Amino acid sequence: MAENTIWKGSSSQWKNYKVHALFLVTLGVCGWLHWGKPALGPWIFLLAAAAGAWALWSWLLLKTTVYTLTTERLVTTRGLLTKVTESLELYRVRDMQVVQPLLHRMVGLHNIHIVSSDATTPDIILDYLPVSDDLGEVLRKSVEDCRSRKGVRTMDVMNESGEPHTHGDAGAGQAPPIV
């Protein structure tokens, strides 16, 4: 079966609201200092230029981070000068949590925290995503469909005390007991 794109998007620029607010405040303070105390000269605007450069860099970094959900993988591509692409096979997703803090709810955004069994990316947070995309439910259905197609099942292994097995439960070279 061919791999098809289900969803493609990126985080909202609301993620950078603090940086952009800092730039605007810095610009206002620099203007006030320049016209209120002319002895400081135009050099005070270098501070505003630095804050503006930081805001622009933050905007560009966020703009160049793209999430792509396919029928097989969740692909994250990020980077301005150097592109880095991370792939998470959907059948490796163990758990998912959708979180919507107060500020996010006010502007129609949410975060999705993914816990996986992948060695390189065990935790992924997709933050500041539009609620209207309903990505949490789309991702859940995609994970279940991928597991069904591949015949993947998860199994919880318990130790002697009935708690979930962790890597430290078994002795060196021993398999964990299956209950």
What features would you describe in this structure?
- The strands form 2 sheets. A 4-stranded antiparallel β-sheet has the order 1-2-3-4. The chain has a 3-stranded antiparallel β-sheet with strand order 5-6-7.
- The protein is of the alpha+beta class.
- Helix 1 (17-36) packs antiparallel against helix 2 (45-63).
- The protein has helices at 17-36, 45-63, 102-107, 135-150, and strands at 5-9, 66-70, 73-78, 84-89, 93-99, 109-116, 123-130.
- It has one domain (5-150): PH-domain like (Roll), CATH 2.30.29.
- It is 34% helix and 25% strand.
Give the topology, please.
Layout: E1 5-9, H1 17-36, H2 45-63, E2 66-70, E3 73-78, E4 84-89, E5 93-99, H3 102-107, E6 109-116, E7 123-130, H4 135-150
Antiparallel strand pairs: 1-2, 2-3, 3-4, 5-6, 6-7
Helix pairs in contact: 1-2
Spell the H/E element sequence: EHHEEEEHEEH
Number of helices: 4
Radius of gyration: 23 Å
Spans where pLDDT lies below 50 across 5 or more residues: 168-174
Report how far apart the termini are.
Answer: 36 Å
- In the CATH scheme, the class would be Mainly Beta
Q: Helicity level, as a percent range? A: 25-40%
Which CATH architecture would you pick? Roll
Structural class: alpha+beta
How many strands, which pairing sense, and closed or not: the largest β-sheet?
4 strands, antiparallel
